[in-house]
Automatic annotation (TrEMBL):
Gene: aroB
Record CDD domains: DHQS
Organism lineage: Bacteria, Pseudomonadati, Bacteroidota, Flavobacteriia, Flavobacteriales
Gene Ontology process terms (BP): aromatic amino acid family biosynthetic process; chorismate biosynthetic process
Role, per record: Catalyzes the conversion of 3-deoxy-D-arabino-heptulosonate 7-phosphate (DAHP) to dehydroquinate (DHQ).
Start and end residues of each 3-dehydroquinate synthase N-terminal domain: 62-174
Protein name: 3-dehydroquinate synthase
Keywords from the named record: Cobalt, Lyase, Metal-binding, NAD, Nucleotide-binding, Zinc
Stretches assigned to the 3-dehydroquinate synthase C-terminal domain: 176-319
Coiled coil segments of this chain: none
Length: 355
């Protein structure tokens, strides 16, 4: 698969990853290399990565605990302190090996340590490959509120080696697939249709779909790097999806939802709202609902959950001037941004999901 140039960052795939990073390290006079991992990528991904890294530069490994609950400023403080204790300077390189928590947090750590050091992302989950790999969004959560603190700044390189996907459980693969399905709905009916028979997809098909998903996001981000317009379309399903994810994360009585699992619900709700407000065909909304629930199952969202979920939407990053802004669909591949939605229609959407 061809490498993809995304602004001042290049995204490489599979075998080309290691040729590229070795050449990059050889061409830059780094003082030290630091690798950020969690306990999972330390065990399952780091040994293979180190085996293919060709350098005499000192390498230090920094491990943090996995999970969205650890995507916090406190974790950053721990990593900043460790970097300082291990002698990191402005000529150091930070390599982030992991899912979206590692690449988001590691990128933010790199951008802020000594006012910025070089970093490279090695996404190891499907979600991070097709979502966090493109666009330079870095940051951490503020309490249970997702991605409230951060900056937009590209890594030097992104290395997507799909072999790492073999280390993932099925629920993590499904979570990543949700973002790819979103890319289809907002950008291309042709791409969306490629997912209609998921059982027929093999590893080679998935590689090509990942590459196409990265291309889709790269195209959007190039046009609108700072989310002033078109880039907002990437938030389809996320206004309610993020609120649902946060609600389930913050309520100790509920099972935590993975990001993609919450976004699937958010997309069903957004499709219904699109049918009610901007003319998206209800027949297509019903097909989307059936397709998603057949593959992901249905989550029990009690009527008592709805108000706290809707209250959480006020923290969505797309909001401005006190308005909660939705991304809706006029047709597959034709999103509409900055849509205001009445609370009653949102409640109706929850009823539609539950029915």
């Amino acid at each position: 698969m061809n490498s993809i140039s995304a602004g001042d960052c290049t995204i490489h795939f599979n075998k080309v990853c290691y040729t590229s990073i070795n050449q990059h390290i050889n061409n830059n006079n780094y003082s030290k290399i630091f690798i950020l991992v969690d306990e999972n990528t330390h065990q399952f991904c780091l040994p293979n990565f180190l085996k293919l890294l060709e350098t005499d530069i000192t390498i230090e490994i920094i491990e943090i605990e996995s999970g969205e609950i650890n995507k916090t400023i406190d974790t950053c403080v721990g990593v900043w302190n460790t970097l300082s204790e291990l002698g990191a300077d402005r000529k150091s390189l930070l390599i982030n090996i992991g899912g979206g928590v590692i690449t988001d947090l590691g990128g933010f750590v790199a951008c802020t340590f000594k006012r910025g050091i070089s970093y490279i992302n090695v996404p190891t989950t499907l979600l991070s490959m097709v979502d966090a790999s493109v666009g330079g969004k870095t940051g951490v959560d503020l309490g249970h509120l997702k991605n409230q603190i951060g900056v937009i700044s590209n890594p030097d390189l992104v290395l997507i080696d799909t072999q790492y996907l073999s280390t993932l459980p099925q629920n993590q693969m499904r979570s990543g697939l949700a973002e790819m399905l979103k890319h289809g709905l907002i950008s291309s009916e042709e791409y969306w249709n490629k997912f209609q028979d998921l059982s027929a997809l093999n590893a080679e098909d998935l590689d090509l779909l990942i590459h196409e998903s990265v291309e889709i996001k790269k195209h959007v981000v190039e046009i609108d790097p700072f989310e002033n317009g078109l880039r907002k379309t990437l938030n389809f399903g996320h206004t309610l999806g993020h609120a649902i994810e946060t609600h389930f994360l913050s309520d100790p009585k509920k099972n935590t939802l993975l990001h993609g699992e919450a976004i699937i619900i958010g997309m069903i709700l957004a499709a219904y709202i699109s049918s009610e407000l901007v003319g998206f065909p209800m027949e297509t909304t019903l097909k989307i609902k059936d397709f998603f629930i057949d593959y992901y199952g249905k989550v029990d969202i009690d009527k008592n959950d709805r108000k706290p979920i809707m209250d959480l939407m006020k923290y969505d990053k797309k909001n401005n001037y006190g308005n909660i802004n939705f991304v809706l669909l006029e047709a597959i591949g034709k999103p509409k941004i900055d849509c205001l939605v009445d609370e009653k229609i949102i409640i109706d959407a929850f009823e539609f999901y539950a029915s």
